[in-house]
Amino acid sequence: EEAARMARFVLHNCDWGALATLSAQEGLRGRPFANVFSLSDGPPGPLSGSGVPYLYLTDMEISVQDLEINSNASLTVSLAQTPYCKKHRYDPQNPLCAHIIFCGSVVKVNDSEAGMAKKALFSRHPEMESWPKDHNWFFAKFNITNIWVLDYFGGLKIVTPEEYYSVKP
Fold first, then answer.
1. Angle at 81 between CA 77 and CA 86, to 5 degrees
2. Which parts of the sequence belong to the CREG-like beta-barrel domain (predicted)?
3. 42: nearest Cα among 54, 30, 34
4. Distance (Å, whole) CA 104 – CA 56
5. What is the dihedral angle through the alpha carbons of 16, 17, 18, 21, rounded to the nearest 10 degrees?
6. Angle at the Cα of 152 (from 150 to 153), degrees rounded to 5?
7. Separation CA 14–CA 103 (nearest Å)
8. pLDDT beyond 90 at 152
9. CA separation, residue 117 to residues 111, 140, 145, 150 (Å)
10. Residue 94 burial (10 A CB sphere; 0-12, 13-18, 19+)
11. Which structural domain range is residue 69 located in?
């Protein structure tokens, strides 16, 4: 019944997601390409999530190269990565093992948002701080334009970004 809240809850409780791009790589050009990325919308804990999926990226990564050509992407996060679905014996494809599909674009964060992105990501993924500096890592965010929630049988629920950002998980 509260699809926007469910979307916020699932994103905040997930540490990674599948990011799909349109490939710019030779042999795959124009085809869908999905890859796993660590993400965070804020430090762990209740009411600490911003709802913005932050990412730590390098131009050396194949999906980032795709995004440089076309920044449009989709991002899927699922409670299957948490203990919830295993505890209830839900298969990852079972709608009761909720998953959220975001569509939008990936963009570098500006200097004023970099501190928030760094805190969000490094609080959940502390090893990121020690990744090779010569890889030119940067903070990015997923700009959400569309949201689909699958958390029960009967089909997807559509949530607007305005509804999504107006609730707390």
1. 130
2. 1-166
3. 54
4. 17
5. -100
6. 105
7. 17
8. yes
9. 10, 8, 19, 27
10. middle
11. 1-166
Tell me which amino acid residue 63 is: S
User: Can you give the CATH number for the domain in which 138 is found?
Assistant: 2.30.110.10
Q: Which residues of 33-52 are buried (b: 16+ CB within 10 A; e: fewer)?
A: beeebbbbbbeeeeeebbbb
Tokens at 34, concatenated: 């999905």
How many separate domains does the chain show?
Answer: 1
- SS3 of 127, please? helix
pLDDT of residue 42: 93
CA distance 53 to 121: 9
Tally of CB atoms within 10 A around 55: 25
Report d(CA 56, CA 137) in Å as an integer.
6
- Rounded distance between C-alpha atoms, residue 14 and residue 38, angstroms: 9
Residue 50 tokens read as 């911003």
Report which of 41, 52, 57 is spatially closest to residue 124, judged by C-alpha positions: 41
